[in-house]
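Quick review question:
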């Protein structure tokens, strides 16, 4: 608390209306209390005033009386600690992970990402066949754009190769299981990075019931979830990565039993 000289303060004048709850004796007691207990709260000051003078007033009355006497609470100044200049923050990325040189879309693969899977999409050296008309990396970027945005193949931006070439290449890669091989490789790399074996030793089976389309096809009825359609199952490891390697626990989709 900071106080001003008591000799400079003017006695409170009653402007009429309700009489003041604190007289000159109470104001003098307030001066003594805030001088002795500078860090006390308004509630503590009120309790001490009641103990000394036998008068009980609310905190708002004490606040107005102190403000009229020129007593204010000074906030403690915060210490300013100098911070050392550590330079720009780094998160383990290098220049190969930056996207400044990759135009247009954030779904495009960076150089570091492409180096991990390039051999799955590029032709082997010396392989026969018609030379590629479009870059395999651009085709993969187009597939990533469709996967992330969910747009139709015909609505691909013109910055990518023609949608017919992208779709045919995607269908060929999907039939050959190239995307499953990419996911298996990335899963093995991540498990090896955290110190686990490449192949999981435990699996978790999850199921989901989906409604089937009106076009027909094999369907059933899930009596538990009250869903008419198909039920699909997915096998993942303990980290949540799905498994596409051939095994008895391979992810599958089966139809629910027919409704009776």
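Suggested answer, residue by residue:
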């Amino acid at each position: 608390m900071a106080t001003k000289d008591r000799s400079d303060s003017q006695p409170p004048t009653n402007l009429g209306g309700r009489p003041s709850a604190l007289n000159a004796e109470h104001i003098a007691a307030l001066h003594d209390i805030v001088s002795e207990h500078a860090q006390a709260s308004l509630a503590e000051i009120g309790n001490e005033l009641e103990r000394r003078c036998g008068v009980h007033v609310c905190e708002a009355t004490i606040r107005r009386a102190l403000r009229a006497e020129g007593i204010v609470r000074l906030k403690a100044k915060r210490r300013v600690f100098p911070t050392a200049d550590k330079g720009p923050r780094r998160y383990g990325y290098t220049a190969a992970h930056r996207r400044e040189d990759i135009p247009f879309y954030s779904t495009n693969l960076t150089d570091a990402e492409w180096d991990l899977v390039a051999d799955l999409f590029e032709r082997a050296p010396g392989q026969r066949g018609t030379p590629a008309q479009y870059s395999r990396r651009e085709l993969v970027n187009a597939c990533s754009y469709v996967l992330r945005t969910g747009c139709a193949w015909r609505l691909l931006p013109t910055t990518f190769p023609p949608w017919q070439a992208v779709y045919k290449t995607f269908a060929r890669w999907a039939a050959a299981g190239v995307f499953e091989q990419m996911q298996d490789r990335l899963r093995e790399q991540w498990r090896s990075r955290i110190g686990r074996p490449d192949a999981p030793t435990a699996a978790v089976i999850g199921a989901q019931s989906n409604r089937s389309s009106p076009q027909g096809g094999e369907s059933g009825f899930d009596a538990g979830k009250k869903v008419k359609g198909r039920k699909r199952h997915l096998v993942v490891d303990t980290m949540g990565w799905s498994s596409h390697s051939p095994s008895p626990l391979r992810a599958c989709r089966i139809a629910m039993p027919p409704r009776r």
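Why it works: The chain is about 35% helix and 10% strand. The first strand starts at residue 204 and ends at 211.
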